[in-house]
């Protein structure tokens, strides 16, 4: 076998194909940058650290700060280079070819791509086509196939709704494998399963600094789980996976939380305003959201996409995903960005 045959593959990786336009409403980023005061403190701390030395491979100071912030032991926490790094660690540690994974769809498509890398068998549970809710009984029936992993994003991306209420997690207690609940948008929904970590030892919770913490460019995610699970997954984590910059910024961001969460309130207010004004438009259906984005459907999807791009606005097209025909997703931006988006789609739909 030659090298050309070695690199030939049916697998296509996770790619976000959106144009790089001035108004970026396609990637669920926080529209507010980190405050200059925080940045200056980061630069000062970095100037006092030796850059010729490897970073702390355990990210001890960041985990201790997270421990205090979350009021849980640091032994329950693993940090990674964004959520994607931690999803990859989980897949590498848990899955072998032909292992079964339960995945409600549509959901964050990175999961399916990473599980495909492991040649796992993905058991898809399709959400209700009307409101994207999940059928718990159908979900539980799939356990007869002896799956190793169940993944639920809550709130769900890209639909924006809650798949589980806080007491619903008790219905999952007898799941035979490991349960991963992705809470990337927890700070917008205020719904979390963190209190169940001790009660349900096979429960894992995934969070990120990319959304509410305005640190998408820094790349920090963290996993909360039983200490035995954290210790096991540590065998599949690359050493020094979080560099000194990410570790320092992560600590500072938590120190500035009281300032940052005020921006979350602004984003939530802007989301409700944008949602209500989109509901007034003809030929468009917008879905309620517990996140910092809105999913909407329109038969004029192509015209909306083209008109927004002409006006320097990038959206995310989900029309090829299951149940999401003619669907686009818009992230909540600044007040001015949201206004420009609304003005643009009004020109198409009115």
What fraction of residues sit in β-strands?
A: 15-25%
Ends distance: 60 Å
- The low-confidence runs, each spanning 5 or more residues with pLDDT under 50, are none
Query: What CATH architecture of the largest domain would you give?
Result: 3-Layer(aba) Sandwich
The chain-level structural class is: alpha/beta
The CATH class name of the largest domain reads: Alpha Beta
- Name the overall outline: globular
The count of strands amounts to 13
Structural description of this entry:
With 350 residues, the protein is α/β, with parallel strands linked by helices. It is built from 12 helices and 13 strands. It has 2 domains: 17-33 and 258-349, Aspartate Aminotransferase, domain 1 (Alpha-Beta Complex); 50-255, 3-Layer(aba) Sandwich (Aspartate Aminotransferase, domain 2), CATH 3.40.640.10. The strands form 3 sheets. It has a 7-stranded mixed β-sheet, with helices on both faces. The protein has a 4-stranded antiparallel β-sheet with strand order 9-10-13-12. The radius of gyration is 21 Å and the shape is globular. It starts with a helix and ends with a helix.
């Amino acid at each position: 076998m030659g090298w050309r045959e070695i690199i030939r593959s049916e697998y296509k990786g996770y790619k976000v194909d959106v144009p790089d336009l001035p108004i970026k409403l396609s990637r669920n980023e926080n529209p507010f940058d980190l405050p200059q005061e925080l940045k200056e403190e980061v630069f000062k701390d970095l100037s006092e650290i030796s850059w010729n030395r490897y970073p702390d491979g355990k990210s001890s100071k960041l985990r201790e700060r997270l421990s205090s912030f979350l009021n849980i032991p640091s032994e329950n926490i693993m940090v990674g280079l964004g959520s994607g790094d931690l999803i990859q660690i989980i897949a590498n540690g848990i899955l072998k070819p032909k292992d079964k994974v339960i995945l409600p769809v549509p959901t964050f498509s990175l999961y399916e791509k990473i599980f495909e890398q492991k040649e796992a068998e993905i058991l898809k549970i399709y959400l209700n086509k009307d409101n994207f809710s999940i059928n718990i009984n159908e979900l539980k029936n799939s356990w007869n196939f002896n799956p190793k992993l169940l993944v639920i994003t809550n709130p769900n991306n890209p639909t924006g709704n809650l798949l589980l209420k806080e007491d619903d997690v008790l219905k999952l207690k007898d799941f035979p494998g490991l349960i991963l609940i992705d809470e990337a948008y927890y700070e917008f929904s205020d719904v979390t399963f963190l209190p169940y970590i001790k009660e349900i030892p096979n429960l894992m919770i995934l969070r990120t600094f990319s959304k509410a913490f305005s640190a998408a460019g820094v790349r920090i995610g963290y996993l909360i789980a039983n200490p035995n699970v954290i210790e096991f997954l540590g065998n599949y984590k690359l050493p020094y996976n979080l560099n000194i910059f990410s570790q320092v910024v992560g600590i500072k961001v938590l120190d500035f939380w009281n300032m940052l969460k005020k921006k979350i309130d602004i984003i939530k207010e802007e989301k409700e305003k944008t949602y209500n004004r989109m509901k007034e438009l003809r030929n468009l259906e917008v879905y309620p959201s517990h996140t910092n984005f809105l999913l909407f459907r329109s038969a004029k999807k192509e015209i909306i996409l083209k008109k927004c791009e002409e006006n320097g606005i990038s959206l995310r097209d989900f029309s090829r995903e299951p149940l999401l025909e003619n669907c686009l997703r818009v992230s909540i931006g600044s007040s001015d960005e949201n206004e420009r988006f609304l003005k643009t789609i009004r020109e198409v739909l009115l």
